[in-house]
């Protein structure tokens, strides 16, 4: 269609120059115009009927108008060049769709499952059910989420978490759809079906993200809706004024049409979603899931980044350093009681305690009436005794007297107090190590001029030490979950604030922050759901790089808006004074600009690795 239209346009110009029959010239231009406008003209007409004057209407009337006043070459050119700029737009939109499609295609179309009696069958991935056993040969892509039940290998999880090194996997480990098995052979029990895998959630979220528009984007859409009718009015006024000032009728119409062409808002209207969606899709590939355009804009304005401590700045893989015993209790008794309750909790401290007792092969019993006390610890019954496991605040709120000894002679670290009824049995001292990359992330943020602060429910001593090690400028210790929320609200008042947490005891703070970023979203649904942005991989260095990317995205958006508006304004003013013709208006004011603006936006798509 483009070729037909272009060749007719050229033919028409040649014929016109050689003074061919005027009817024939008109005819040739008309073919050019109609072939380029076959989709544009009907849309323009529909717009007119619905009283929604959009750019199709603007361009259709400009083109038809040009034919009527005896400038068929311009009329055809307007339509042809607008058609080309529509093609450019479409390509840009496809680019974005392709990004999402690439994510979808990470799921292999079929999977090999193990049938009874050891036979194997290759079936479509969508037909695999929970409980089926997948056979995963070296070098193949894993089709569904599941747990390894046989074999040992390492798996490249880069497609969904962005982490560069393969992760070792053996029996009991979780594997994810879309990741690639390396050298070993694995058998995997499927834990979620095709449309419930982590991968399909990612695709869904990225897709939904397109609809959560950034404020700037919304502003522009609203603006362009009002703008077209205004431009049509202005154009008519310009025509009438030129006529009044003594221009010939066709001269007056020509000027008006030129202004009409320039006023087409297509360039920046398309460029904004292209920039923002490219940025979202690009981030997803790096294991950073941004759940809406709005968050990209918000992140670009960040002044402060607040971090949770346990599980965020630290690994959250605590080890038991020391157990201090009181009232002749044994180490086994204290650890077993604590772990028995903690079996039910998902807190990093809890997991660490359970792991420690398993290593020492202590037998855990059953607890009743278990409940967590956020920011303090847990409570529950073992046999007919009430137990409390948690921090000092928990014990003092239960008015349980601390054994004075443990206060002063029981090491330094995260203290977990264990009490039976009113009696303090013992104190477990635990320590945690800094997450790799945490220090680097904090120092990068500082270099970018962003304030950093740590918010923790742990004690002052531990907080102070970790803050110093990791290099955060400030910290607040002994915070309850609701106090973390208040701290975030105060920070937000002084500048746009990001909260980074692991979703355990800090979900309310993640929600309260201008942007909540959750760590380790592959393994925790809650983190994936409550946050605005989820890091698939536990790497804090993604935070500064995300901020950089968001800043770049928004600066491209702003550049595009500024350039579009100034070029249009300039050419528009020239048009008012009759200094530009239709050719120039369409080539520079519309197509050239669309091209420049889209090219600028697509810079974000290029992989930055
Ligand atoms: P952080 O801010 O360091 O992530 P949390 O808000 O999750 O810490 O918890 C605050 C404090 O509450 C912990 O340092 C710990 O002392 C205590 N705590 C919370 N949950 C538990 C638990 N399940 N077992 C023992 N102590 C707990
Ligand atoms: Mg935490």
Please state the CA-atom Rg, rounded to the nearest Å: 33 Å
Ligands in the model, by name, code or SMILES, are:
adenosine-5'-diphosphate, magnesium ion
Number of helices: 23
Number of E strands: 22
Largest sheet features = 7 strands, mixed
In short:
With 609 residues, the protein is an alpha+beta fold. The protein folds into four domains: 2-99 and 211-275 and 552-605, no CATH class; 110-196, Distorted Sandwich (Calcium-transporting ATPase, cytoplasmic transduction domain A); 288-315 and 434-536, 3-Layer(aba) Sandwich (Rossmann fold), CATH 3.40.50; 319-431, Calcium-transporting ATPase, cytoplasmic domain N (3-Layer(aba) Sandwich).
Task: Name some characteristics of this structure.
binds magnesium ion; 6-stranded antiparallel sheet; 53% helix; Rossmann fold; alpha+beta; 7-stranded mixed sheet; 17% strand; 23 helices; single chain; Calcium-transporting ATPase, cytoplasmic transduction domain A
Task: Outline the structure in words.
The chain folds into four domains: 2-99 and 211-275 and 552-605, no CATH class; 110-196, Calcium-transporting ATPase, cytoplasmic transduction domain A (Distorted Sandwich); 288-315 and 434-536, HAD superfamily/HAD-like (Rossmann fold, 3-Layer(aba) Sandwich), CATH 3.40.50.1000; 319-431, Calcium-transporting ATPase, cytoplasmic domain N (3-Layer(aba) Sandwich), CATH 3.40.1110. It contains 23 helices and 22 strands. The strands form five sheets. The chain has a seven-stranded mixed sheet, sandwiched between helices. Helix 4 runs antiparallel to helix 5 and helix 5 (72-104) runs parallel beside helix 10. It starts with a helix and ends in a 7-residue tail after the last helix.
């Amino acid at each position: 269609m483009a070729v037909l239209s272009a060749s007719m346009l050229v033919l028409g110009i040649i014929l016109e120059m050689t003074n061919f029959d005027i009817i024939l010239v008109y005819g040739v231009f008309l073919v050019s115009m109609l072939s380029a406008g076959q989709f544009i003209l009907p849309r323009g007409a529909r717009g007119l009927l619905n009283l929604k004057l959009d750019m199709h209407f603007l361009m259709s009337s400009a083109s038809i108008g040009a034919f009527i006043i005896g400038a068929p070459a311009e009329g055809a050119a307007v339509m042809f060049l607008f058609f080309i700029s529509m093609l450019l737009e479409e390509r840009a939109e496809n680019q974005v769709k392709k990004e999402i499609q690439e994510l979808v295609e990470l799921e292999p179309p079929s999977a090999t499952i193990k049938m009874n009696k050891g036979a194997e069958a290759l079936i479509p991935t969508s037909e695999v059910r929970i409980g089926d056993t997948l056979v995963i040969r070296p070098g193949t892509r894993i089709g569904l989420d599941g747990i390894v039940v046989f074999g040992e290998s390492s798996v490249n999880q880069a497609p969904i978490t962005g982490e560069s090194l393969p992760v070792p996997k053996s029996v009991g480990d979780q594997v994810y759809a879309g990741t690639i098995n390396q050298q070993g052979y694995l058998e995997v029990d499927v834990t979620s079906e095709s449309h419930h895998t982590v991968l399909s959630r990612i695709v869904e979220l990225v897709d939904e993200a397109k609809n959560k528009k950034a404020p700037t984007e919304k502003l522009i859409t609203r603006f362009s809706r009002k703008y077209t009718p205004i431009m049509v009015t202005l154009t008519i006024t310009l025509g009438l004024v030129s006529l009044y000032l003594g221009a010939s009728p066709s001269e007056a119409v020509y000027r008006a049409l030129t202004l009409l062409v320039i006023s087409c808002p297509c360039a920046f209207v398309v460029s904004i979603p292209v920039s923002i969606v490219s940025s979202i899709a690009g981030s997803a590939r790096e294991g950073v899931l941004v759940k809406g355009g709005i968050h990209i804009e918000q992140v670009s304005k960040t002044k402060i980044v607040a971090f949770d401590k346990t599980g965020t700045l630290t690994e959250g893989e605590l080890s038991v350093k020391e157990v201090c015993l009181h009232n002749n209790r044994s180490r086994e008794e204290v650890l077993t009681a604590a772990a028995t309750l903690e079996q039910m909790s998902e807190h990093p401290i809890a997991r660490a305690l359970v792991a420690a007792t398993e290593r020492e092969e202590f037998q855990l019993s059953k607890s009743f009436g278990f409940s967590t006390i956020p920011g303090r610890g847990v409570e529950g019954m073992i046999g007919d005794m009430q137990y409390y496991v948690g921090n000092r605040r928990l014990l003092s709120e239960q008015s349980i007297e601390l054994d004075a000894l443990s206060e002063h002679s029981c090491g330094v670290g995260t203290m977990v107090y264990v009490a039976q009824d009113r009696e303090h049995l013992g104190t477990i001292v635990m320590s945690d190590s800094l997450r790799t990359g945490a220090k680097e992330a904090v120092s990068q943020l500082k270099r970018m001029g962003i304030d950093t602060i740590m918010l923790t429910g742990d004690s002052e001593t531990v907080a102070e030490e970790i803050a110093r090690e990791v290099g955060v400028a400030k910290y607040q210790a002994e915070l309850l979950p609701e106090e973390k929320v208040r701290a975030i609200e105060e920070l937000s008042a002084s500048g746009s604030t990001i909260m980074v947490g692991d979703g355990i005891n800090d979900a309310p703070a993640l929600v309260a922050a201008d942007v909540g970023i959750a760590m380790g979203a592959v393994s925790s649904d809650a983190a994936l759901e409550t946050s605005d942005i989820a890091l698939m991989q536990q790497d804090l260095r993604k935070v500064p790089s995300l901020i950089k990317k968001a800043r770049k995205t928004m600066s491209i958006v702003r550049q595009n808006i500024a350039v579009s508006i100034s070029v249009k304004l300039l050419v528009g003013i020239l048009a008012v004074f009759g200094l530009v013709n239709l050719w120039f208006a369409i080539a520079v004011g519309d197509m050239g600009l669309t091209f420049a603006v889209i090219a600028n936006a697509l810079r974000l798509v290029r992989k930055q690795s």
